[in-house]
Amino acid sequence: MIKILIFCGLLFTSNILFAQNPRVELRAVWVATVSNIDYPSSPTINSDVQKQEFIKLLDMHQQNGMNAVIVQIRPATDAFYPSALEPWSQWFTGRQGQPPVPYYDPLLFMIKETHKRKMEFHAWMNPYRAMFNIDNSSISASHITKIHPEWFLAYGDKKYFDPGNKEVQKYVTTVVKDVVSRYDVDAIHFDDYFYPYRIAGKEFPDEVSFAKYGKGMNIDDWRRSNTDSVILMLSRVIKQESKKCQFGISPFGVWRNADKDSRGSNTQAGQTNYDDLYADILLWLKNGWIDYVAPQLYWEIGHNKADFNSLIEWWSKNSFGKNCYIGLGIYRAGSNAAWKDKTQLPRQIEKLRNTPNINGMIFFSSKTFEKNPNGWNDSLRLNYFREPALLPKMAK
Predict the structure, then answer these.
(1) Less crowded by CB within 10 Å, the N or C end of the chain?
(2) Predicted pLDDT of residue 156
(3) 3 state SS for 221-290
(4) Residue 300 within a domain
(5) What is the pLDDT of residue 107?
(6) Torsional sign, CA 203, 207, 213, 219
(7) CA-wise closest residue to 128 among 144, 142, 107, 140
(8) How far is residue 247's CA from residue 79's CA, in Å, rounded to a whole number?
(9) C-alpha distances out from residue 329 to 86, 226, 339, 364, Å
(10) Measuring CA to CA, which residue among 185, 32, 77 is closest to residue 121?
(11) Vertex 273 angle, CA 220 and 235, to 5°
């Protein structure tokens, strides 16, 4: 009886302390739809199956203590929602342009179900990827690659919008504006894909646009200016349509190596945001064009070229007062000795919680949680996320 009373007393005290000083922390998970990585498990036109799967996914993450989902609604210039601009995604119904049956609005449904659980819904969109695989993608007659073929460039096995084309920048902004104006999304979210990752020995074929718009700039600065331009355009249109909708970017974890720039991190990344993806994240943060940054720190603690602890401290010092959420690579569980260590993820969470200017975390990706790797679902639910957290407010 005495032990029971002591336990009840401790639980009561814990609840009082949380009520008085609740943790403010984003606890989110990425839900990737490209190639059906996370959702739906396979393409289907059956709207009931789509709904049931999404509810099951949400319930799992709510049980684990998440307070937000970041759902990919535009994986390759297609849509997981009814759009007059772009066709239904092949990864949703199996054939690009095919709506679900019975017909409904999946994005409206997903947002309502997410908000019902008091979780945020961030709409994840890929700005420039137009054709995921040139050889076998399902492409409808209404796809923008068929309407404006002159806007696109083939690189590797994919087709991309030409980021230097001014009409392309306007079109991408129009697509985002359409979503923000019609849906109660809590954020528009972009990941690390701006200019594509370099393919060894192959240059991105944008020489025609460079000749037309370069205006004496070197090609690297010109490419960065193109990315800057679309980010600024998007920032403005999002805030015009909704003051409460955030604009967040989840970049590759290394902005720039210190051997290239004294402001860079103590890393030896083979490719970086600034030099290879032409994404100057620090400029966007400094100028207030984005509301949060979520660097993808998928390396382990002690990695010899990109140490997790070193990078989290670098981002802490370079967030310019904006919310900074750390992308955690739970998908890497079991991939090497470090990720077979059950303490790897808990130590990363402890590190980010004890680092200034870090406001939460995002896990990649949803599917991994179905396997409860290294017992980490249990660890989150019973230890780290046992008490609910308040969502961070948008930084001003």
Answers:
(1) N
(2) 97
(3) HHHHHHHHHHHHHHHHHHHHHCCCCEEEECCECCCCECCCCCCCECCCCCCCHHHHHCCCHHHHHHCCCC
(4) yes
(5) 98
(6) positive
(7) 144
(8) 19
(9) 31, 30, 10, 5
(10) 185
(11) 90
The pLDDT-based confidence of 15 (bands split at 50, 70, 90) is low
Share of the chain above pLDDT 70, in %: 95
In 3D space, the residue among 17, 25, 123 whose CA is nearest the CA of residue 67 turns out to be 25
CATH number of the domain at 293, please.
3.20.20.80
Distance CA 120, CA 122 (A): 6
Among 199, 38, 177, 188, which Cα is nearest to 126's?
188
User: What region does 341 belong to: left with phi over 0, alpha with psi -120 to 50, or beta?
Assistant: beta
**Residue 391 included in any domain:** no
Tokens of 27: 């606890």
CA torsion through residues 271, 276, 277, 281, sign: positive
Block residue for tokens 């890393």? 267
Tell me which residue of 248, 236, 92, 246 sits closest to 184, measured CA to CA.
Answer: 246
User: pTM for this one?
Assistant: 0.94
Task: Note down the domain range covering 267.
Answer: 27-384
Q: Based on the structure, what is the number of domains in the chain? A: 1
Is 396 a domain residue? no
Q: Which residues lie across from 159 on neighbouring strands?
A: 131, 154
| Beta-strand runs (E) in 106-215 | 120-125, 129-131, 152-155, 158-161, 187-190
Residues 245 and 187 sit within 8 Å (Cβ to Cβ): yes
Residue 32 lies in a domain: yes
